[in-house]
Amino acid sequence: MFSFPLLTNAEILACLDELELGFTEAMLLNPEKHRDEVRNVFEQLAELCCGLSREDVARHARIDVDRLPYAQLHEESVVELAVFRGVADLLRRSGVADFGLRDWHAPSTKRLKKHLSGVINFAKFREDRLAEYVQLCQQRDAIIEDASNAQRDALEAQDEVSNVERETYDARQEVASAEDATAVFETDAAAFGRIVASASEKRDDLVDAARVLAEDITNSLEEVRLRDEECARLRDTAPVQTPEELESRIAAMHQELEAIDSAHADHSSELERAMTEARRCAEAAPLIQRCASAVEAVEADVAAHRARLAELRDVERQGDGARAEIRQLDDCLKVADGNADLARKRVDDCAEQARLRADRDARALSVLRDELQRLEREAAPRQALRRHLEARAVEVRKNVQVEDVAEDAWIDACAADLAAAL
Predict the structure, then answer these.
(1) Cα–Cα distance for residue pair 292/290, rounded to 1 Å
(2) Please, are residues 45 and 124 in contact by the beta-carbon 8 Å criterion?
(3) Residues 213, 271 contacting (CB under 8 angstroms)
(4) How does pLDDT run across 30-71, given as a tens digit for each residue?
(5) Model's pTM, two decimal places?
(6) Under a CB-based contact definition with an 8 Å cutoff, are residues 267 and 220 in contact?
(7) Number of alpha helices (DSSP H) and beta strands (DSSP E) in the chain
(8) Please, are residues 39 and 45 in contact by the beta-carbon 8 Å criterion?
(9) With contact defined as beta carbons under 8 Å apart, do 294 and 189 qualify?
């Protein structure tokens, strides 16, 4: 607990008169007769220094009706006790730690001077440091506002990044589903391509087989015609044969004709199968065309999905930029927090320096007052001796008759003797 100088009655009255508290010298010299006025002065000082008024205390005072019987009887006492605690807190902050209920209800002149000196010194110190405190508070508020703005910007950036990440996640899911669909489309397109290639090969093979069969049929028909012509020629030019020989020859020719007919039937069946395959290929041509259209549509979807993927990658890069901005905002927020800590530390250091300076000034003032009292105590005997010597000088002057010419010299000699004695 730091010390403070005790003020004189005139200083106390002058300070309280400047505050217009209505405090008189009678209240200071006889506080027992003016208890209510003294308490009123303390309440006004608490309101001036701490902003504590009886109305505020009465408004916020609460009585626990469950623990205190007949609570309605204690409404005024609770307010009075709260006001006393506020005044005691003010005096404790002013350096007076022993302010109690006796000082509140039965004040004495000596302790009242001590209490008023402490409060006045505290008020003077508060007034001297108020401008610096207000400036530091403004700096602190500015730093806190910057920090809150940075935090708000960081939160907004985080929300934006969350939205971008959510959109990126949805876009990635969309891209994944598009890639899966693209893979399915590519697989189907490859299958359709293989089917189209196989159908084209089969169609070419069937066309070649039909052409070969047509050529074979044409050759067979030409051979049959030639054989018929040969038979007719032989029939016209052949010598007369026996019926048995003719029958055997006819049977051989019938066998050859049956072989030709069977070969012709085989060729006809092959041709029928070739024509069937050709019709199937013709029927498959629209399907092949639709497959080609589907493949083109799939390729267009793949191109669109790739473009969407490029856009999403751009969005992802923008999200990376937003993350970098968030990291910068976090760094700014950390710097603002550091500045706020430095400002708070400066405020604490200034308060500590002010307190140490006040303690040092109070100790120096106390030492000076002690030295002044010591000098006054030492000067008291000298003043008494001086008064005694002056009285003796007056008596001697009355008894001793000196010439007017030598009177001044005699006075000078007495003054020199008096100075030497002092």
Answers:
(1) 5
(2) no
(3) yes
(4) 998 898 899 899 888 888 888 778 887 777 666 665 666 666
(5) 0.35
(6) yes
(7) 9, 0
(8) no
(9) yes
Residue 401 has pLDDT above 60, yes or no: no
DSSP character for 66? T
Provide the residue count of the chain: 422
The CA–CA distances, whole Å, from 321 to 69, 149, 164, 173 equal 68, 20, 11, 21
Residue 74 tokens read as 């204690």
How far is Cα 247 from Cα 230, in angstroms, rounded to an integer?
18
Secondary structure of 373-399 in HEC code, one letter for each residue: HHHHHHHHHHHHHHHHHHHHHHHHHHH
| 280 secondary structure, DSSP code | H
- Helix, strand, or coil here: 31? helix
Question: Using one digit for the tens of pLDDT, what is the confidence trace for 318-376?
Answer: 767 767 776 876 776 677 677 767 767 776 776 677 577 767 766 766 676 777 677 77
User: Coil, helix or strand for 98?
Assistant: coil
Q: How far apart are CA 419 and CA 113, in angstroms?
A: 40
Pairwise CA distance, residues 261 & 248, whole Å: 19
**Distance set, CA 250 to CA 119, 225, 235, 259, 263 (Å):** 157, 17, 11, 14, 19
**Tokens of residue 238, six digits:** 């052949």
Which residue type, as a one-letter code, is found at position 165?
E
Measure the N-to-C terminal CA separation of the chain; round to a whole number of Å: 43
How many alpha carbons fall within 13 Å on the CB side of residue 327?
A: 6
φ/ψ of 52, rounded to 5, equals -105, 115
For residue 291, how far is the Cα from the chain centroid?
57
Query: Hey, what's the torsion of the CAs at 289, 295, 301, 305, to 10 degrees?
Result: -170
